[in-house]
Amino acid sequence: MKEMKLVSKRFGKINPLSIDEYINFDGYKNLKKALKMEKTSIIEEVEKAYLRGRGGAGFPTAIKMMGLAKETNKEKFIICNADEGEPGNFKDRYLMENDPHQVLEGMLIVAYATGATKGYIYVRGEYQKSISLLKWSIDEAKKNGYLGKNILGSKFNFDIEVRSGAGSYVCGEEFALIESLEGKPGRTRVKPPFPTSVGLHNKPTLINNVETFSTIPSLIEMGGLEFAKIGTPSSTGTKLISLSGNVKHKGVFEIPYGVPIRDVIYKLGGGIEKDRKIKMVQLGGACGPIIPDYMLDMIIDYERFEEFESKTGAGAIIVMDERFDLFDILLKVVRFFQHESCGKCTPCREGHIQLANLIIKFIERKATVKDIISLESLARVIHQASLCGLGQTSPTAIISSLRYFRDDYIDRIEHPQKG
């Protein structure tokens, strides 16, 4: 099995510090093409491509672009969400460190199509190399006429500024990110209104993640219909996968949607270290479902993932072999969300404390049937009643484990002496 490289085609082939090498490898040619197109035509191409956000939620990119384009405010913003804090995900860092100009080119095309006046890249604070490379690339783009006023001799003006997060996981959620950019504590807002109407500084704002913006130049080059031929009807194009855990070859791989998870693990990842058996695989990151080995023939696709009451996530596949205990993993996941909860809403703030207490009972083999009922009920309350998407997806690992590993729970209840 080979990768299909669209957004990762320059990885390792150009010096990311060199704008000349980027330009010589088809860089900024799609911005030039876009500047000759009608703005509405660019959005139509994105709509034909059925490009969905690569950050996790999978919202159609064209709808966001249409929403921003129709706003008449003189100030409109674009934000690139590079606050990649989900455990198991590292593909956005690869994009920023290997091809930073592609991120800028994607933002420029979207800005031109929607009439945005300024862009921000909100980067995870721990990604210092990414921050340095982006700042360097922005300066180079300005010197060469790709950013600033009258870009490439046109009437299009646009600038990009890099801002750093401070380590808060919840700032990956779009409203918390906006609050942080405004200098406030990173906490979500009640919606609607949505950012394309009332966003940064109460101005219309479009937010997409690094991979989404990086996909735009290839989409413009191919045309929307050709792009849509890649993948599946509900999930078009390619996806960067962050493969980690007990596989032989860890790393970032680009695949077309529709590839079975098992192929990614065994054909790209080389299988499991020392040929051990797979106990479980977590998809998407800490907020994603945990599935057993027999489900690995499932394809990577937005519709298929909906059965988990979750999204595809940002593309992480975390493989855990038979040496690992389900409940130890669940406790780590719950502790992570307990620590990262912003504390604004009660279900998330208090719920994770109680989830941890219940999981500990299963680890210590002191749980009862009443505890499994409480665990399931509490996880669903957090899922349905938390204020933001991060809180809502935080119990996905528990909900999926109750569905696919229920025998493990029952065993802990029926055999307390094993421990």
Automatic annotation (TrEMBL):
The keyword Iron applies. One of its GO terms (molecular function) is FMN binding. Keywords: 4Fe-4S, Iron, Iron-sulfur, Metal-binding. It comes from the Bacteria. Residues 327-372 form the NADH-ubiquinone oxidoreductase 51kDa subunit iron-sulphur binding domain. InterPro entries: NADH-UbQ_OxRdtase_51kDa_CS, Nuo51_FMN-bd, Nuo51_FMN-bd_sf, Nuop51_4Fe4S-bd, Nuop51_4Fe4S-bd_sf. Belongs to the complex I 51 kDa subunit family. This is NADH-ubiquinone oxidoreductase 51kDa subunit iron-sulphur binding domain-containing protein. It comes from Mariniplasma anaerobium.
